[in-house]
Structure formats: C-alpha cells, structure tokens
C-alpha cells in the first residue's frame, strides 16, 4: 500500500498539500511573521539574482549586508523624522474631515447628501469601519507587529546571505528516504514563489508608482497634510484593484473641503489616469495579463479573504488565490513570466523535478 501510495502522484501531492495547509493552520498565530519573512527574503534574493546577472558576486553577504544596513538606516530615519509628521498630519486631517462632514456646507450639497444616504442604506460605513478598525488594531499592536518585523527581518537576512548554501543543503532532502515528500513540497514551493511572489512583487511596484503619481498631483494641487495622504494612498494601493477606488473617497472629501468641486474633478481625473496606467501598462508588463482575474472574482476574494486571514487578506488574498488556481490547473502561470528559473535535479519523479531553492 505504501508503494502504491508513493506511485500515485496525484494522491500523494494532495496529501502533502493538505499536510502543509494543516501545519499553516496550526501556526496561524505566526502568520504575520511567516508572510513578512517570505516577503523580505523574496525581495532580497530577487535583488541578489538581479545583481548577479551583471556583476560577479561570490558571497551573497557582500551585497546583502550593505543593503540591510541601508534599510535599517532608512527605517531609523523614517521612525525618528517622518512618523511624527505623519501622525500629526493624520490627526489634523481626521479632525478636518470630521468638522467638514458636520458642517452646513456638506449638508447643503445634494451630491454628497445622496452619497451619504446611499452609503448608510447599504451599510457600507459599518463594513468600512470594521475593516479600518481591524487594520488599526493590527498596526497599533506595536509589540506583536514589532516583534514579527524584527524576527522576519533577521530570518530573511540569514536566508539571503546563506542562499547558496541553503540550495546545496536542500538537495539532500530530495534524495533522502522520504524524498518523495520533499520533492512534492518543493513542487508547491516553486509554484508559491512563482505565483504569490511575482504577483506580490508586482503589486508592490505598482503601489509605489501609483503613490508617486498621486503625491506629485497632490503637491501641485497644494493639498494640506501631504505626508499623511501619501502614506494612506500607498497602503491602499497595496490592495489590488479596489485600493485606488477606496482611496478616492477620503481624497475627494479633502479636495472638496480645500478647493470645492474643481479639486474633486482634478482628483477624479488623476484616479482615471492611474487606472489607465495600471490596467494597460503596469499590469500587463509586471503582473502579466494571463495572471489577471476578472474584476468580479477580484472583489469576491477581497471580501472573503479578510474574513479568513484578517487584515492580511486584503493584501495577500489575490496572490494566494492566484497560487491556488495555478495548483489546481485552472489558470497556470506561463514559465516565461516566472521570475525565478530553478535548475532541475534528477529524481525518480520526472514530473516534479526541481531545485529546492
């Protein structure tokens, strides 16, 4: 029975997949640490591989150590100089929006009254309030999040500087007595890196581009509290598709309170330009059109993912769903769009060969 089980690749892979799912479920309290470690390590290894295409680097630490030192210096600069500014501006911005919302000027505007009644009727305010509270609860739990960030940062650093040694060490698992289990685990690991990793990396880059365009536009519009608005747009842009739409609401309120309907029109034009840029240039180039989901599925995933994974679901829900589609053969990611070329290792199972990197 054991030999028949090992020979049945489909049943065996499903068993390994369920085992991985059970392990992750049991370790769900460490989900933040696991995801942050993967993201940091993925970005560090991608940087190392990109530089190695142009410059010969024998030891990874020669590149990774200076980069991590620069990141630490940047974090120190942000925490000591920009975080206090963002907190102060955010407090001022929220108070200004509350005062504007309660002002007669807002009540006398027919368009905003219609939107307010529509939002109240659908109960969107409560849903948005609950979502924001969940995100704020995660962010404000400084001890938990801070510990997760520090641990993830350290783990990703050692993973990156020992990347070559880890690849060599990982090959020993493929030829062990239970090599079939580790080869199937490696199969899912490759799928995960080549779907989850590339989608998340592309979304991060798209968020940076969207934030840069928004910041430049707000600067020329002379909008107040520029730092807090830019930070808000960046975090919302990490949410695929819906993030830019969600950020439109507070941006429009701020624009109307500052310059009236004219500034709101400017904001709408800016959002339209960002959508065109994201849909026709950034997504096809960095996300690959074949990895895109219909908008309906995107919103369904964005609604269900936070219920399953909490606030992380807004950011990683789409990449994980894309990974599952690839696993089940519904929508495979073409190899030409995959960022990591994994060397093949000869094993007994020809359909899931690969380097454990």
How does this model look, in words?
- The protein has one domain (30-352).
- The longest helix is centred in the middle third of the chain and has 42 residues, at 179-220.
- It is mainly alpha-helical and 357 residues long.
- The chain has helices at 2-7, 9-26, 31-52, 61-101, 104-107, 110-122, 124-140, 142-161, 163-174, 179-220, 226-237, 242-259, 261-287, 295-309, 312-327.
- The protein contains 15 helices and no strands.
- Helix 10 crosses helix 15.
- Pfam families: AI-2E_transport (PF01594).
The chain-level structural class is mainly alpha
Spans with pLDDT under 50 lasting ≥5 residues?
Answer: 336-348, 350-357
For the record, the count of structural domains works out to: 1
Helix content: over 70%
Overall radius of gyration: 23 Å
**Number of helical stretches of at least 4 residues:** 15
- How much of the sequence lies in strands comes to under 5%
Give the CA-CA distance, first to last residue. Answer: 31 Å
Number of strands: 0
Overall geometry comes to globular
Topology order in helix (H) and strand (E) letters = HHHHHHHHHHHHHHH
Q: What number is the mean pLDDT?
A: 75
Main β-sheet: number of strands, strand sense, barrel status?
none
Protein name: Permease
Subcellular location: Membrane
Membrane topology: Multi-pass membrane protein
Transmembrane segments: 16-43, 63-83, 135-161, 202-221, 233-258, 264-281, 293-309
Topology:
Blueprint: H1 2-7, H2 9-26, H3 31-52, H4 61-101, H5 104-107, H6 110-122, H7 124-140, H8 142-161, H9 163-174, H10 179-220, H11 226-237, H12 242-259, H13 261-287, H14 295-309, H15 312-327
Helix pairs in contact: 2-10, 3-8, 4-11, 4-12, 10-11, 10-13, 10-15, 11-12, 12-13, 14-15
């Amino acid at each position: 029975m054991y030999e028949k089980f090992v020979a049945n690749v489909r049943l065996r892979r499903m068993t390994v997949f369920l085992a991985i799912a059970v392990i992750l479920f049991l370790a769900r309290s460490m989900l933040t640490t696991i995801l942050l470690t993967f993201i940091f390590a993925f970005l560090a290894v991608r940087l190392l591989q990109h530089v190695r295409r142009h410059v010969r680097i024998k030891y990874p630490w020669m590149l990774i150590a200076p980069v991590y030192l620069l990141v630490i210096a940047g974090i120190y600069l942000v925490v000591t100089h920009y975080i206090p500014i963002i907190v102060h501006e955010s407090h001022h911005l929220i108070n200004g929006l509350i005062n504007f919302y309660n002002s007669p000027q807002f009540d006398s505007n027919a368009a905003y009254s219609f939107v307010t009644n529509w939002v109240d009727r659908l109960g969107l305010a409560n849903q948005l309030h609950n979502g924001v509270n969940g995100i704020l609860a995660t962010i404000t739990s400084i001890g938990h999040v801070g510990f997760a960030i520090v641990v993830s940062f350290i783990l990703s650093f050692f993973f990156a500087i020992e990347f070559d040694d880890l690849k060599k060490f990982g090959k020993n698992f493929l030829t062990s007595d239970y090599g079939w289990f580790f080869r199937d685990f490696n199969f899912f690991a490759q799928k995960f890196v080549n779907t989850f990793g590339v989608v998340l990396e592309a979304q991060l880059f798209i968020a940076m581009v969207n934030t840069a365009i928004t910041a430049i536009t707000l600067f020329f519009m002379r909008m107040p509290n520029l730092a807090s608005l830019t930070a808000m747009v960046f975090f919302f842009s990490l949410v695929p598709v819906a993030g830019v739409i969600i950020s439109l609401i507070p941006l429009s309120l701020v624009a109307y309170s500052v310059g009236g309907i004219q500034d709101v029109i400017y904001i709408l034009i800016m959002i339209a330009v960002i959508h065109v840029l994201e849909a026709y240039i950034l997504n096809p180039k960095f996300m690959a059109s074949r990895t895109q989901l219909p908008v309906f599925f995107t919103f369904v995933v964005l609604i269900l993912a936070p219920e399953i994974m909490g606030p992380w679901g807004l950011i990683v829900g789409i990449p994980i769903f894309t990974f599952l589609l690839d696993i089940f053969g519904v929508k495979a990611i073409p190899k030409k769009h995959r960022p990591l070329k994994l060397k093949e290792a000869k094993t007994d199972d020809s359909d899931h060969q690969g380097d454990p990197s």
